[in-house]
Amino acid sequence: MCFINGTPLTVLYDSGATHSFISHACVSKLKLPVFSLSFELIVETPTSGSVITTDVCSKCPLTIEGRDFMVDLICLPLSQLDVILGMDWLSSNHVLLNCASKSIVFGEPVEKVSKDYLTANQVKVSLQEDAQVYMLLASLDSEKNVLVNELPVVCDFLDVFSDVSSLPPRREEKFSIDLVPGTGPISIAPYRMSPIELVDIKKQIEDLLEKGFVRPSVSPWGAPVLLVTKKDGSMRLCVDYRKLNKVTIKNKYPLPRIDDLMDQLVGACVFSKIDLRSGYHQIRVKSEDVPKTAFRTRYGHYERFIKGFSKLALPLTSLTRKGVMFVWDSKCEDSFRALKEKLTSAPVLVLPDLSKTFVVYCDASKMGLGGVLMQEGMVVSYASRQLKVHERNYPTHDLELAAVVFTLKIWRHYLYGSKFEVFSDHKSLRYLFDQKELNMRQWRWLEFLKDYDFDLSYHPGKANVVVDALKEGHRSKLSFHPGATKMYHDLRKMFWWPRMKKDIAEFVSACLVCQKAKIEHQKPSGLLQPLSIPEWKWDSISMDFVVALPRTRKGHDSIWVIVDKLTKSAHFLPVNIRYSLEKLARLYIDEIVRLHGIPSSIVSDRDPRFTSRFWESLQQALGTQLRLSSACHPQTDGQTERTIQSLEDLLRACVLDQGGSWDSLLPLIEFTYNNSYHSSIGMAPYEALYGRRCRTPLCWYEPGDSVILGPEIVQ
């Protein structure tokens, strides 16, 4: 039992707790002042796992057995206890726990010794009288946890602690590296490093060379190096010997048990510890095993700018030598053309300038992750990869964050240690570092991102054309894989770059979905007799059915295709093959007559529904003339047949790329068809019908602006 401000509380004296705690209910009941810490405390409990808290009651007045104490109590959600007093309070007040009597015992207070001060004359007289005098020299140590290098005696004798400047003396016992029989030399290419890391590595290697810890090597072995940040912010040079360790015979000498070592400390009164400076370099290795410890850095290695340059230029190089007759043969001509092709067809990239700021654009989709590294509007590098199987289940927020992590890992050698900018079209990423509730995957990525110095900014999707343009223009739910001609005419009004038509054709030809879904369309042989051109929009129409489609949940298994002969605009109506003529007539009135009025003529084949008396009577009452095609001659209604071919291509691409039920995506397919370029009229059907194309989310530019970009938009 304890008291706070006279209120009795239930207390637990816990020698297993490092700190003291108070329940939230008790704090609210007593209205105690609570202070917030600048950091989070993670408290491990034996029953409920970890608890995070930032609240503390400072200098809380606590009364126990008539004694008053000022205790700092951490606030926790305690259910059955009010206060827990841990080892911080028990040790500072010399409290003993009597388990037999279930009581506490306070240590006896130290009795004060009276001090009688003597003058110098009194001491002199006492010495003359042969009195015993004891002298005690005492100093007050007010500072605690003083570091060794802060002690005056250490600072005065720094020369005693000499730096390690050479290898240790030769001894009988040396460290050996025994390999598994049959193991050959292992050599791994150096890791890519950032400019700041390269400077640090070079400095440390020069220091090791000067001290004689390392030497130039021609060993067939070689391990890469990496840098690890120390607590003080400096970098530690580490050699990645993991491949060597896998082929090394492990030393099975038993290590001493820690609990046995602790038992040996019984009765000890002096404790000390020893640490060796550069202890790794104070162990000699057998001379025959020294080559196995070789490591590799980028210094002394050279890079090739053109792949296979030496082979390509070999025939040309021989012509530049002295005493060689200049003969331009077929090999030289082929070499010249191949070299010219390599130089002119290389990616349009710029070399990175480490004195300028890097900018990273990244994005994610349901198919993969991608990004662009730029400087001053010029592309330095591209990166992309497909999503892994488990990543396809990530929510959008995690996918966008995964794109940021992916690009930073790829270009770490450029970005680490320097200030840069990251742009993403996912606005919520701007508040990532302020969120308190994150899952384990996000916490892991957040720890990775803290190693970089960057500003994360929001880039609207319509402005992020470098990443989004072709993806949305070719694979979105408002485009459904248009062909090269349609895509060229759709994009030319918004963008332009050299060789634009060729680049789009190459991109579309490489689309796997287009190769699976599209079929080759050729003009039929023989002379064509075109129908007369209508005088007005939707004055003359044609119609037909697409049948034998997979039945959907709504019962649809066919599509009624109705096309305007003048504007080429069309309506795709999902129907069932068993619909009655009355239901088809009602659908015709609701979807066609309601929007476009009554046409003057209808061209169709001799489907039983179009030759029925009901349909003829209905059109006669409306004043519409029926024009039926000849039997077994679909060329009569070639316009509808060609529209059906385009519709089937869109349906196949839709199912392959988007998935789901085809009738739910049919409105978007209709919009895609009507809003894309049509070669027979030189514009989109909507543009011919309404005077302008319909606006879509694919318009990344503001109205009135002209956007001119390079071929990167299709790469």
TrEMBL record:
The keyword Mitochondrion does not apply. One of its GO terms (molecular function) is endonuclease activity. PROSITE patterns: INTEGRASE. Keywords: Endonuclease, Hydrolase, Nuclease, Nucleotidyltransferase, RNA-directed DNA polymerase, Transferase. Its EC number is 2.7.7.49. InterPro entries: DNA/RNA_pol_sf, Integrase_cat-core, Integrase_H2C2, Peptidase_aspartic_dom_sf, Retrovirus_Pol_polyprotein, Rev_trsase/Diguanyl_cyclase, RNaseH-like_sf, RNaseH_sf. This is RNA-directed DNA polymerase. It comes from Cajanus cajan.
